[in-house]
Amino acid sequence: MLKKFSIKENFNTSTPQGKFALTMFAALYELERDSIKERQREGINLCLAENRPYGRPRTKFSNTFPTNYKRWKSGKITAVEFMKLEGLAKTTFYKMVKNFEKANLDRQILA
Q: What DSSP designation does 16 have?
């Protein structure tokens, strides 16, 4: 077992009192985590029952996205400039590019 000692809080896990305090903190943490999960599940079930969407809203393609995409792919603008023009974070930008390319590939296959 790992033994910890804190001078400031006078907390020593090598003593019975320290082990007890650590066990209590762990139990409180687990209770809080389970409560959060339960409330989250209740909210999701309520949304499903009312046929409402839940979770983070999806970012939609702007009207300028295809034009900026072509400019970016041709090397006229950088990825950073593209992100600034669209107001996107880096991860959102690359996820949207992936989805945009997939959608265009699907259109080409179906055409």
A: H
Distances (CA, A) of 30 to 20, 21, 25, 41, 72: 15, 14, 9, 16, 48
CA atoms of 72 and 93, how far apart (whole Å):
12
Q: So what's the pLDDT on residue 8?
A: 61
Angle at 65 between CA 64 and CA 71, to 5 degrees: 95
Cα 14 from chain centre: 38
Is the pTM higher than 0.85? The answer reads: no
Please write the tens of the pLDDT for every residue from 14-47.
888 888 988 999 999 999 999 999 999 999 999 9
Q: Which two tokens stand for residue 108?
A: 């080409």
Distance, CA of 84 to CA of 97 (rounded, Å): 14
CA dihedral 31, 33, 35, 39 (to 10 degrees): 180
